[in-house]
Amino acid sequence: MTESEQPNAASRPPATLGRESLNLPNLITVSRLVLSIVLFALIDIGGYWVASAALFVFAAATDWLDGYLARKYGQVTTLGRILDPFVDKIIVGGTFLFLLAKNGAMHDGHTIESGVNAWMVIAVIGREMFVSSLRGFLEQQGKDFSASFTGKAKMMLQCVAVTASLLSLNPDLHWPWLAPARDVLLWSAVIVTIWSGLVYVDRAVRLLRQD
């Protein structure tokens, strides 16, 4: 479930954590966490770049499924609300970290470039941690801090950029435009990530000034 699909504090049902948490939406979320571990292993091993990209796309494309099923069948749980955004951040943030490790690394006797730099990873993960903390603080005070369009745009660009980065590591893809396109997408994703964070800060300040 993306940020834009998370229910706001006012619309959430009472929080419970029990046997009802063992439902299909939460099992899908857990399966996505397992997939992320497989994805990280493939990236770390190296050489399985197309498979890694396909697995990442699958995990990202099914991102909405657990939230959709939970809302449709009234199976929204405390565990799901905690676990789902956590898994989303693990998949995207973790993939950025592993791509950073592969940037400039040696594989099969040649240097590979993912296009991901340390400052990009700091921007992506730092923004997620900050906005999540800000959302938790404001919603504890009963403020509506549900996600906006900027969060959805940020997530979409990050996913496209990561996919391009994974594919660019494959030496068999002789596409001269791939590396430049990857770099443009990565820069765009980071810029939108920072911009969306600033949008949330501005929104938080306005909410706090209402008191």
How is this structure best summarized?
Its main location: membrane. With 211 residues, the protein is mainly α.
Q: How does this structure look, described?
A:
It is a single chain. The relative contact order is 0.15. The protein has a two-stranded antiparallel sheet. By secondary structure, it is mostly helical. The chain is built from seven helices and two strands. The chain has a single domain (3-209), classed as Up-down Bundle (Four Helix Bundle (Hemerythrin (Met), subunit A)), CATH 1.20.120.
Main features:
single chain, 211 residues, mainly alpha, Four Helix Bundle (Hemerythrin (Met), subunit A), two-stranded antiparallel sheet, 7 helices, 2 strands, globular, transferase, lipid metabolism, transmembrane, lipid biosynthesis, transmembrane helix
Summarize the SSE layout with pairings.
Elements: H1 24-45, H2 49-61, H3 65-72, H4 78-102, E1 105-107, E2 110-112, H5 118-140, H6 149-168, H7 178-209
Antiparallel strand pairs: 1-2
Membrane topology: Multi-pass membrane protein
Main location: membrane
InterPro entries: CDP-alcohol_PTase-I (IPR050324), CDP-OH_P_trans (IPR000462), CDP-OH_PTrfase_TM_dom (IPR043130), CDP_ALCOHOL_P_TRANSF_CS (IPR048254), Phosphatidylglycerol_P_synth (IPR004570)
